[in-house]
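Private note to self, pasted from the team thread so I don't lose it. C-alpha coordinates:
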Protein backbone atom coordinates (compact mmCIF):
# COMPACT_ATOMS: atom_id res chain seq x y z
CA UNK A 1 0.00 0.00 0.00
CA UNK A 2 1.91 3.04 -1.30
CA UNK A 3 0.56 5.89 0.81
CA UNK A 4 3.40 8.19 -0.31
CA UNK A 5 2.28 8.17 -3.97
CA UNK A 6 1.27 11.59 -5.23
CA UNK A 7 -1.04 12.73 -8.00
CA UNK A 8 -2.37 15.88 -9.61
CA UNK A 9 -6.00 16.78 -8.83
CA UNK A 10 -7.85 19.74 -10.33
CA UNK A 11 -11.01 19.67 -8.23
CA UNK A 12 -12.66 17.99 -5.26
CA UNK A 13 -16.41 18.38 -4.83
CA UNK A 14 -18.34 17.27 -1.78
CA UNK A 15 -22.06 16.53 -1.50
CA UNK A 16 -22.54 15.17 -5.04
CA UNK A 17 -25.62 13.05 -5.69
CA UNK A 18 -25.20 12.37 -9.42
CA UNK A 19 -22.18 10.08 -9.80
CA UNK A 20 -23.00 6.96 -7.88
CA UNK A 21 -25.28 5.95 -5.01
CA UNK A 22 -25.98 8.28 -2.12
CA UNK A 23 -24.10 11.43 -1.21
CA UNK A 24 -20.54 11.36 -2.57
CA UNK A 25 -17.24 13.17 -2.81
CA UNK A 26 -16.01 13.66 -6.39
CA UNK A 27 -12.28 13.70 -7.05
CA UNK A 28 -11.17 15.00 -10.45
CA UNK A 29 -7.74 13.76 -11.51
CA UNK A 30 -5.73 15.64 -14.13
CA UNK A 31 -4.60 14.13 -17.42
CA UNK A 32 -6.53 12.44 -20.22
CA UNK A 33 -5.40 10.49 -23.31
CA UNK A 34 -8.44 11.67 -25.29
CA UNK A 35 -9.28 15.12 -26.66
CA UNK A 36 -13.06 15.13 -26.94
CA UNK A 37 -14.13 18.27 -28.78
CA UNK A 38 -17.06 18.82 -26.37
CA UNK A 39 -15.08 18.12 -23.17
CA UNK A 40 -16.65 19.79 -20.13
CA UNK A 41 -13.39 19.75 -18.14
CA UNK A 42 -10.68 21.09 -20.46
CA UNK A 43 -8.61 22.15 -17.45
CA UNK A 44 -8.16 18.46 -16.69
CA UNK A 45 -6.92 17.31 -20.07
CA UNK A 46 -3.19 17.78 -19.49
CA UNK A 47 -1.17 16.40 -16.61
CA UNK A 48 -0.04 19.79 -15.33
CA UNK A 49 -1.54 22.82 -13.56
CA UNK A 50 -3.47 25.36 -15.66
CA UNK A 51 -3.78 29.11 -15.16
CA UNK A 52 -7.41 30.17 -15.43
CA UNK A 53 -8.56 33.78 -15.81
CA UNK A 54 -12.07 34.88 -14.87
CA UNK A 55 -12.37 38.21 -16.62
CA UNK A 56 -15.67 39.15 -15.00
CA UNK A 57 -13.96 39.25 -11.60
CA UNK A 58 -10.93 41.21 -12.79
CA UNK A 59 -10.30 44.88 -11.99
CA UNK A 60 -7.30 45.49 -14.29
CA UNK A 61 -6.20 48.85 -12.92
CA UNK A 62 -2.69 48.92 -11.47
CA UNK A 63 -2.87 45.15 -11.56
CA UNK A 64 -0.27 43.68 -9.17
CA UNK A 65 -0.39 40.41 -11.12
CA UNK A 66 1.29 42.12 -14.09
CA UNK A 67 4.22 43.17 -11.91
CA UNK A 68 4.37 39.78 -10.21
CA UNK A 69 4.79 37.75 -13.41
CA UNK A 70 8.51 36.93 -13.78
CA UNK A 71 8.14 36.43 -17.55
CA UNK A 72 6.29 39.60 -18.45
CA UNK A 73 3.58 37.38 -19.91
CA UNK A 74 0.59 39.45 -18.71
CA UNK A 75 -0.60 42.53 -20.55
CA UNK A 76 -3.68 44.74 -20.47
CA UNK A 77 -6.14 45.85 -23.10
CA UNK A 78 -7.47 49.27 -22.16
CA UNK A 79 -10.76 49.89 -23.94
CA UNK A 80 -14.38 50.20 -22.93
CA UNK A 81 -14.00 46.89 -21.09
CA UNK A 82 -10.40 46.63 -19.84
CA UNK A 83 -9.07 43.09 -19.52
CA UNK A 84 -5.84 41.19 -19.16
CA UNK A 85 -4.07 39.26 -21.90
CA UNK A 86 -1.71 36.33 -21.38
CA UNK A 87 1.13 34.86 -23.38
CA UNK A 88 0.13 31.27 -22.73
CA UNK A 89 3.44 29.94 -24.06
CA UNK A 90 4.96 31.26 -20.81
CA UNK A 91 1.95 30.51 -18.58
CA UNK A 92 1.93 26.87 -19.65
CA UNK A 93 5.54 26.46 -18.53
CA UNK A 94 5.22 28.40 -15.28
CA UNK A 95 5.26 26.36 -12.08
CA UNK A 96 5.24 29.16 -9.48
CA UNK A 97 2.20 31.18 -10.58
CA UNK A 98 3.17 34.34 -8.69
CA UNK A 99 0.37 36.16 -10.50
CA UNK A 100 -2.26 34.10 -8.69
CA UNK A 101 -0.92 35.03 -5.27
CA UNK A 102 -0.79 38.69 -6.34
CA UNK A 103 -4.36 38.80 -7.67
CA UNK A 104 -6.62 40.79 -5.34
CA UNK A 105 -9.98 39.90 -6.89
CA UNK A 106 -9.89 36.09 -7.29
CA UNK A 107 -9.76 36.53 -11.05
CA UNK A 108 -6.79 34.18 -11.36
CA UNK A 109 -6.66 30.65 -10.08
CA UNK A 110 -4.70 27.47 -10.67
CA UNK A 111 -6.52 24.30 -11.73
CA UNK A 112 -4.48 21.34 -10.57
CA UNK A 113 -2.32 20.78 -7.55
CA UNK A 114 -0.46 17.74 -6.18
CA UNK A 115 -1.86 15.61 -3.38
CA UNK A 116 -0.31 12.62 -1.66
CA UNK A 117 -2.47 9.55 -1.10
CA UNK A 118 -2.37 10.26 2.63
CA UNK A 119 -3.49 13.85 2.12
CA UNK A 120 -6.42 12.85 -0.08
CA UNK A 121 -7.47 10.10 2.32
CA UNK A 122 -7.62 12.63 5.15
CA UNK A 123 -10.11 14.66 3.11
CA UNK A 124 -12.18 11.59 2.24
CA UNK A 125 -12.17 10.40 5.85
CA UNK A 126 -13.45 13.82 6.91
CA UNK A 127 -16.28 13.59 4.33
CA UNK A 128 -17.09 9.97 5.14
CA UNK A 129 -19.21 10.98 8.10
CA UNK A 130 -21.55 12.93 5.79
CA UNK A 131 -22.03 10.28 3.10
CA UNK A 132 -24.60 8.17 4.90
CA UNK A 133 -25.00 4.45 4.40
CA UNK A 134 -25.10 4.53 0.60
CA UNK A 135 -22.50 7.18 -0.23
CA UNK A 136 -18.81 7.10 -1.04
CA UNK A 137 -16.15 8.55 -3.33
CA UNK A 138 -16.18 8.81 -7.12
CA UNK A 139 -12.99 9.33 -9.12
CA UNK A 140 -13.39 11.28 -12.34
CA UNK A 141 -11.25 13.52 -14.53
CA UNK A 142 -9.67 13.89 -16.96
CA UNK A 143 -9.04 10.17 -16.99
CA UNK A 144 -8.69 8.98 -13.38
CA UNK A 145 -6.80 5.82 -14.37
CA UNK A 146 -4.03 7.71 -16.16
CA UNK A 147 -2.07 8.35 -12.94
CA UNK A 148 -1.67 4.65 -12.22
CA UNK A 149 0.46 4.54 -9.09
CA UNK A 150 -1.56 7.26 -7.37
CA UNK A 151 -5.04 5.98 -8.14
CA UNK A 152 -4.09 2.41 -7.19
CA UNK A 153 -2.72 3.60 -3.84
CA UNK A 154 -5.81 5.70 -3.13
CA UNK A 155 -8.29 3.00 -4.14
CA UNK A 156 -6.54 0.42 -1.97
CA UNK A 157 -6.64 2.79 0.98
CA UNK A 158 -10.34 3.48 0.37
CA UNK A 159 -11.13 -0.22 0.40
CA UNK A 160 -9.17 -0.63 3.65
CA UNK A 161 -11.26 2.24 5.12
CA UNK A 162 -14.57 0.63 4.01
CA UNK A 163 -15.37 3.42 1.53
CA UNK A 164 -17.68 2.75 -1.41
CA UNK A 165 -15.71 3.57 -4.58
CA UNK A 166 -16.80 4.46 -8.10
CA UNK A 167 -14.73 5.33 -11.17
CA UNK A 168 -15.79 7.32 -14.23
CA UNK A 169 -13.46 6.31 -17.06
CA UNK A 170 -13.06 6.46 -20.82
CA UNK A 171 -11.58 2.93 -20.65
CA UNK A 172 -8.83 4.15 -22.98
CA UNK A 173 -6.27 2.64 -20.60
CA UNK A 174 -4.10 -0.45 -20.40
CA UNK A 175 -6.35 -3.49 -19.98
CA UNK A 176 -4.34 -5.19 -17.26
CA UNK A 177 -4.42 -2.09 -15.08
CA UNK A 178 -8.16 -1.59 -15.59
CA UNK A 179 -8.80 -5.17 -14.46
CA UNK A 180 -6.39 -4.75 -11.55
CA UNK A 181 -8.25 -1.78 -10.01
CA UNK A 182 -11.56 -3.65 -10.09
CA UNK A 183 -10.55 -5.38 -6.85
CA UNK A 184 -10.90 -2.01 -5.08
CA UNK A 185 -13.88 -0.70 -7.07
CA UNK A 186 -17.59 -1.07 -6.39
CA UNK A 187 -18.98 0.82 -9.39
CA UNK A 188 -17.56 1.53 -12.84
CA UNK A 189 -18.96 4.07 -15.31
CA UNK A 190 -17.49 3.68 -18.81
CA UNK A 191 -18.15 6.22 -21.55
CA UNK A 192 -19.00 4.74 -24.94
CA UNK A 193 -18.90 7.63 -27.37
CA UNK A 194 -19.12 6.07 -30.84
CA UNK A 195 -19.15 2.60 -32.39
CA UNK A 196 -17.31 3.64 -35.57
CA UNK A 197 -13.58 3.90 -34.93
CA UNK A 198 -12.94 6.53 -37.62
CA UNK A 199 -15.72 8.75 -36.27
CA UNK A 200 -14.42 8.19 -32.74
CA UNK A 201 -10.95 9.23 -33.89
CA UNK A 202 -12.33 12.41 -35.47
CA UNK A 203 -14.24 13.43 -32.34
CA UNK A 204 -11.86 12.32 -29.58
CA UNK A 205 -8.41 12.01 -31.14
CA UNK A 206 -8.25 8.21 -30.82
CA UNK A 207 -9.95 5.12 -32.22
CA UNK A 208 -12.31 3.01 -30.13
CA UNK A 209 -10.78 -0.47 -30.41
CA UNK A 210 -9.15 -0.42 -26.97
CA UNK A 211 -12.29 0.98 -25.36
CA UNK A 212 -14.55 -1.70 -26.83
CA UNK A 213 -12.15 -4.50 -25.91
CA UNK A 214 -11.82 -3.16 -22.37
CA UNK A 215 -15.59 -3.04 -21.91
CA UNK A 216 -15.75 -6.66 -23.05
CA UNK A 217 -12.88 -7.57 -20.72
CA UNK A 218 -14.64 -6.09 -17.69
CA UNK A 219 -17.94 -7.73 -18.67
CA UNK A 220 -16.31 -11.18 -18.82
CA UNK A 221 -13.99 -10.75 -15.83
CA UNK A 222 -16.31 -12.13 -13.17
CA UNK A 223 -16.11 -8.86 -11.25
CA UNK A 224 -19.11 -8.52 -8.93
CA UNK A 225 -19.34 -4.70 -9.04
CA UNK A 226 -21.79 -2.66 -11.07
CA UNK A 227 -20.82 -1.63 -14.59
CA UNK A 228 -22.83 1.22 -16.13
CA UNK A 229 -22.24 2.14 -19.78
CA UNK A 230 -22.67 5.87 -20.29
CA UNK A 231 -23.37 7.33 -23.72
CA UNK A 232 -23.08 11.10 -24.09
CA UNK A 233 -25.57 12.16 -26.78
CA UNK A 234 -23.61 14.73 -28.79
CA UNK A 235 -25.53 16.35 -31.67
CA UNK A 236 -23.87 15.85 -35.02
CA UNK A 237 -21.38 13.34 -33.63
CA UNK A 238 -23.00 10.16 -32.35
CA UNK A 239 -26.75 10.77 -32.37
CA UNK A 240 -27.64 8.91 -35.58
CA UNK A 241 -30.08 6.01 -35.35
CA UNK A 242 -27.53 3.65 -36.92
CA UNK A 243 -24.87 4.45 -34.33
CA UNK A 244 -27.28 4.27 -31.41
CA UNK A 245 -28.59 0.88 -32.57
CA UNK A 246 -25.03 -0.37 -32.99
CA UNK A 247 -24.21 0.82 -29.48
CA UNK A 248 -27.28 -0.90 -28.05
CA UNK A 249 -26.39 -4.09 -29.92
CA UNK A 250 -22.85 -4.07 -28.56
CA UNK A 251 -24.02 -3.65 -24.97
CA UNK A 252 -26.73 -6.29 -25.32
CA UNK A 253 -24.28 -8.76 -26.88
CA UNK A 254 -22.10 -8.53 -23.77
CA UNK A 255 -25.15 -9.28 -21.60
CA UNK A 256 -24.86 -5.95 -19.83
CA UNK A 257 -28.26 -4.85 -18.55
CA UNK A 258 -28.17 -1.04 -18.54
CA UNK A 259 -27.16 2.14 -20.30
CA UNK A 260 -27.13 5.71 -19.01
CA UNK A 261 -27.57 8.34 -21.73
CA UNK A 262 -26.41 11.88 -20.99
CA UNK A 263 -27.50 14.90 -23.04
CA UNK A 264 -24.68 17.10 -24.32
CA UNK A 265 -24.43 20.41 -22.46
CA UNK A 266 -22.31 23.55 -22.70
CA UNK A 267 -21.61 24.00 -19.00
CA UNK A 268 -17.88 23.89 -19.67
CA UNK A 269 -17.94 26.77 -22.16
CA UNK A 270 -16.66 29.36 -19.69
CA UNK A 271 -13.70 27.17 -18.82
CA UNK A 272 -12.39 27.42 -22.38
CA UNK A 273 -12.58 31.19 -22.12
CA UNK A 274 -10.73 31.08 -18.81
CA UNK A 275 -8.00 28.99 -20.46
CA UNK A 276 -7.77 31.33 -23.44
CA UNK A 277 -8.86 28.63 -25.89
CA UNK A 278 -11.74 28.13 -28.33
CA UNK A 279 -14.74 25.92 -27.60
CA UNK A 280 -15.74 24.18 -30.81
CA UNK A 281 -19.21 23.32 -29.52
CA UNK A 282 -20.16 26.83 -28.42
CA UNK A 283 -23.09 27.00 -30.86
CA UNK A 284 -24.31 23.42 -30.47
CA UNK A 285 -27.70 23.10 -28.78
CA UNK A 286 -28.39 20.44 -26.16
CA UNK A 287 -30.72 17.60 -27.21
CA UNK A 288 -34.33 18.25 -26.33
CA UNK A 289 -36.21 16.04 -23.85
CA UNK A 290 -38.13 14.66 -26.82
CA UNK A 291 -34.89 13.71 -28.56
CA UNK A 292 -33.57 12.02 -25.43
CA UNK A 293 -36.83 10.08 -25.09
CA UNK A 294 -36.41 8.85 -28.67
CA UNK A 295 -32.86 7.74 -27.93
CA UNK A 296 -34.06 6.01 -24.78
CA UNK A 297 -36.58 4.00 -26.78
CA UNK A 298 -33.84 2.75 -29.11
CA UNK A 299 -31.95 1.22 -26.19
CA UNK A 300 -35.09 -0.12 -24.56
CA UNK A 301 -36.02 -1.82 -27.83
CA UNK A 302 -32.80 -3.83 -27.46
CA UNK A 303 -33.97 -5.06 -24.06
CA UNK A 304 -31.79 -2.70 -22.03
CA UNK A 305 -32.68 -0.57 -19.06
CA UNK A 306 -31.95 2.99 -20.13
CA UNK A 307 -31.76 6.00 -17.84
CA UNK A 308 -31.75 9.59 -19.07
CA UNK A 309 -29.41 12.12 -17.50
CA UNK A 310 -28.17 11.58 -13.98
CA UNK A 311 -31.37 9.96 -12.76
CA UNK A 312 -29.93 6.44 -12.69
CA UNK A 313 -31.76 4.49 -9.98
CA UNK A 314 -28.80 3.94 -7.70
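Design output:
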Amino acid sequence: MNSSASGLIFDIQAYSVHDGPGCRTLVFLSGCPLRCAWCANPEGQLLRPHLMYRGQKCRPVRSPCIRACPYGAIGIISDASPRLTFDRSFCDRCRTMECVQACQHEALRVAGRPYTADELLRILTRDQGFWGGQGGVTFSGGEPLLQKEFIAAVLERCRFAYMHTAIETSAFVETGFLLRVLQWTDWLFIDLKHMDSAAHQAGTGAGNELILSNIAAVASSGWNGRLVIRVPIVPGFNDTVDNLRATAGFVEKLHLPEVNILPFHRLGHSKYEQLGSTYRYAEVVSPSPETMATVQRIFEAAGLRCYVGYQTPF
